[in-house]
Request: fold
Amino acid sequence: MKIVIDAYGGDNAPQEIVKGALQALKEKEGFSVVLVGKREEIEALLSSETYDAERVGIVDALRVITNDMSPTEAVRKMKDSSLVKAFSVLNSDPDAQAIISAGSTGAVLTGATLLVKRLEGVTRAALAPVLPTVKGGFVTLVDCGANSDCKPAQLVQFARLGSAMVKATSGNRSPRVGLLSNGTEDKKGNELTKEAFPLLKAETGINFVGNMEAREILSGDYDVVVADGFSGNIALKACEGTALAFMTILKNCILAGGLRAKLGYLLMKPVFKEVKKTMDYNGYGGAVLLGLTKVVVKSHGSSKAKSIAASVIQAYTVASAGVSTSLEL
Amino acid sequence: MKIVIDAYGGDNAPQEIVKGALQALKEKEGFSVVLVGKREEIEALLSSETYDAERVGIVDALRVITNDMSPTEAVRKMKDSSLVKAFSVLNSDPDAQAIISAGSTGAVLTGATLLVKRLEGVTRAALAPVLPTVKGGFVTLVDCGANSDCKPAQLVQFARLGSAMVKATSGNRSPRVGLLSNGTEDKKGNELTKEAFPLLKAETGINFVGNMEAREILSGDYDVVVADGFSGNIALKACEGTALAFMTILKNCILAGGLRAKLGYLLMKPVFKEVKKTMDYNGYGGAVLLGLTKVVVKSHGSSKAKSIAASVIQAYTVASAGVSTSLEL
Reply:
């Protein structure tokens, strides 16, 4: 299996992307990577590393799509960009099963939409990040931004796609699916979720447990959270922002707390490090674009080597579980 | 000015409601309270307290609307419930300017919708909680649940109502209004926000600063966050859930951290208490229902005396600023 990597997408490209790719190779067998981007620079970065040369390929691409470019224009016009070239390799090489990019989310989504074949029956692919829960497990949020406006039937597809990925990548045979709403009662919701509710209830093959509030996303009581992309994006970003706010307020209170507080902080430093590590969902991988015939992973823009390595291994796990090819819709 | 209080709404009623009302009287002059509920029980609670009897009235109401009742049915049929009776006092007593309840949100919203006159031009009232920001200020989120499906023009009303309340209750003459979206670029959003954007931009009298992501709600860069009620509710509940998750994970890491971590925790206890107090938005008051001719404050269901006292003072502040009566729409 080959995993294609956009070596020039993201704030810390190409150094951290290359480092992360090599880290993944050390952590797991069974696949090789294709680094796409400026060949000379990549070769220079590789020259100072030790790695199995048989497992690393390079494909040259001189240009880079940046966050400020219009995604659709960039994808259509910049065929020699690292991202578009990477999609091209994904499609043309029969061994290529997955692609990773930490570049512009818009460009990755557009590229995937225009260039990667969808599974039969899938209306639109959905972006699914995986978040840690307080019970030590994970929850998959589908959709978190690929589809701002959805039809009820799409939410059912999100439920099926999310469930399939969770089943394939964990021991969980019956992932609990919750529909993100503004209350837990069956009658709650907006027009979209009220129409989707009975469809989800009627769907065999998924374990739909009902409406849920955003307060419960990280509770560990749900394995898949279904939402339209706009609502999902709000939920995800609100979680991120609150975690950051919490840490900022904590820091301010420590600084204002005098010697005792600072001493306590020093003693608790390992704990804070552990909390940060636990809550940083980018440490577990990227967001998987569900519903395509190949695995597309969008890593966080600010990803460093650790997140990239996690994304590569995540892509390997999802691809080898055959999620993309075996999903019945 | 009289502030009417539903003494039997909420998990800790009537004890904490009565205590909170008396606390508010101690903290501020200029108003009196009317406690609505079972007269005998309220009198018994008051008998063990010291307070200015001139500032406390009681109106008898024998029944209580609970969370499991259908709000519309309860409000229509239970005229002798503490909540409906409180609305009745609010409407019949010319000195009554505001009502507080910690009861069922559905019932409070329904009661307000059916029983309190809207300001001219207001389509639907909106529920606006006030959250603390990392810069030590506050942000008002409009709407967080009264209107699950909105039209673009309603979002503009939310912006105006929120701005008016912030202007009236703080020194801020030009509250920065952000439109909750899935990106900051002008073109981002779903169908609703894309239609609302130009309307907000064209609206004189508000300081519309553009689209914003949910990650920035608590940043202190916005004073009013505008969203349809479904999205606003998701944002609010996601913030709550993440703060709770953070504290749970922190606690788990401390317990697993051994002696050093526990010692550090003991030293940092005052800091954690301060953080919790800062982030607990219920400590600042309740959610104000904007767009009505009287002030309606929905306190959190689990409110204790401190939150109730804060809600009463908040209601007093909003009412004396004349927000309800002077808003031009």
Chain A has a mean pLDDT of 94. The two ends of chain A are 25 Å apart (CA to CA). Residues 205 and 226 of chain A are 15 Å apart (CA to CA). Chain A touches chain B through 61 residues (CB under 8 Å).
